[in-house]
Specification:
single chain; alpha+beta; Penicillin Amidohydrolase, domain 1; Penicillin V Acylase, Chain A; nine-stranded mixed β-sheet; six-stranded antiparallel β-sheet; 17 strands; globular
Length: 475
């Protein structure tokens, strides 16, 4: 065992001795009285969490224990299928590479999740929970780094960084009221994506209140759409075909959660995300400050970081690199190929922004995320080149998920404007917004090579747009 892992193990042992949640003085019943789980609304599960880091974690683990246990099995299955590495490989990376760089506040929250799970009889430990939180940076970022360090020999082809999500943020002359409007749809594998239906209302004892979408057991949004009580609006899309990982950096999941919780301005957001950047889950972040009406794009590569900002304009994301130097040095992305999904969607975003200048509002944003126009052909044809994200409909077999098994696409959608953000609300829609709803049995009949996914694959009906609100009891 390395010195680092010894220290990490001692830290975990210390945290584990405090029950039911590290640092908590109240009883489990009192801790849970601060929290709430609302009945499902059009596919969304809304959770209110409040208190110290360990209390928030305990509430999270207890209230979502069933969903967390299932998601962990799904993520382990996906990672093993995609990387040919078992769950123990990722647990070890969580312990030896990630945990030493996680600050105390989030260690306590993660251990609180473990304790909350234990209270419900779910036997996941801290390394399971850390690996679950970091799955987006472990598969396509850490694995290629690890592979390169191994002695020469036969190794599986490293997982490529997928194309994930479409998003926009606009302000000034581009929006109907001159204030910020932001939208995002999450592209991911249908196995995990069908569980990306949690609306978290978090009232921490330090920092800002958070209202964000997310996954059960995960302390950051992960697909990254949220607002905080300082008036910040935050989303992102992944930089596809990116390579680079720094094991000495701070895990992306910890930086993303900290930025959502503690940023009060665009500058603070950029500083938190950039400090200790490990290159994991490299994104183009779209950020707005409702206090000033200013928006920004933070393209966060490992070597190249670009911050652009405006009070009159827009930024869009569809997994394309913006900075040409970043594209050349840190990606294998084909910048000039208009048939590539990210480029085709970028062109479509530009068309929509020009067409809707001065008219963009929440309803327009919802329409954008359901747009089925393929800019390469000029036809309405839901596929991997359309903003509505139907990778499973692609006739080319070109897939943006890792690796190409086609079982992916846009799984949910969110839009908010400045007024909604100030009230800690957003609109969300579960399921695809174009084409026929996803039907698991029909898909597997056409793609028997993906029967490995059958135990957890569900139908995904298109749910209506729903206004989600932070729990009013969290003052």
């Amino acid at each position: 065992m390395t010195f680092r892992s010894v220290i990490a193990a001692l830290a975990v042992a210390l945290l584990s001795t405090i029950q039911p949640a590290a640092g908590a003085t109240d009883s489990p019943e009192a801790i849970l009285r601060k929290a709430a789980r609302k009945p499902m609304q059009n596919g969304w599960i809304q959770i209110h969490l409040e208190g110290s880091p360990s209390e928030i974690g305990y509430q999270h683990g207890n209230l979502l224990s069933k969903e967390i246990a299932e998601l962990q099995r799904i993520i382990a299955l996906e990672l093993e299928h995609d990387t040919k590495k078992d769950w123990d490989f990722f647990r070890k990376a969580a312990e030896e590479v990630l945990w030493p760089k996680v600050e105390t506040e989030y260690r306590e929250e993660l251990q609180g999740i473990v304790n909350g799970l234990k209270s419900k009889g779910v036997a996941l430990d801290i390394w399971d929970v850390v690996a679950l939180n970091a799955f987006l940076e472990l598969g396509p970022y850490y694995v290629p780094y690890w592979e390169k360090k191994q002695p020469d020999g036969d190794h599986p082809k490293p997982v490529s960084v997928p194309e994930r999500c479409s998003a926009f943020i606009a302000t000034g002359d581009y929006t109907k009221d001159g204030k910020i409007v932001m939208g995002h749809n999450a592209w991911t594998g249908y196995l995990d994506g069908q569980r990306w239906n949690i609306a978290f209302d978090i009232v921490p004892e330090r920092g800002n209140r958070i209202f964000m979408d997310g996954l059960p057991g995960v302390i950051h949004s992960a697909d990254d759409f949220g607002v905080n009580s300082a008036g910040m609006m935050i989303t992102e899309t992944t930089i596809s075909q990116f390579s680079g990982f720094d094991p000495e950096g701070i895990p992306e999941f910890a930086r993303a959660r900290k930025a959502m919780q503690y940023s009060n301005s665009i500058d603070e957001f950029a500083q938190i995300m950039s400090e200790g950047n490990n290159g994991g889950y490299a994104n183009n972040w779209l950020v707005g400050d409702t206090k000033t009406g200013e928006i920004a794009s933070l393209e966060l590569g490992l070597k190249n970081v670009t911050l652009r900002r405006t009070i009159d304009g827009y930024f869009v994301g569809s997994n394309f690199p913006v900075n040409e130097k970043l594209a050349e040095e840190e990606t294998a992305f084909p910048m000039k190929d208009r048939s590539v999904s990210a480029n085709a969607r970028r062109i479509r975003w530009e068309q929509l922004m020009a067409e809707w200048k001065g008219k963009i509002d929440v309803k327009a944003g919802q329409r954008f995320l359901g747009d089925a126009v393929d800019s390469f052909t000029g036809k309405a044809d839901p596929n991997e080149r359309t903003l509505c994200g139907r990778i499973d409909f692609s006739p080319r077999g070109i897939v943006s998920w890792m690796p190409p098994y086609g079982l992916a696409g846009a799984v949910q959608n969110k839009v908010a404007d400045a007024a909604m953000a100030k009230q800690m609300t957003f609109t969300g829609a579960i399921g695809t917004q174009c084409g026929a709803p996803f039907q698991a049995a029909r898909y597997l009949a056409r793609h028997p090579e993906n029967t490995w996914a059958r135990p957890y694959l569900k139908d995904m009906p298109a749910r209506p747009w729903t206004t989600l609100r932070a729990d009013p009891k969290g003052k």
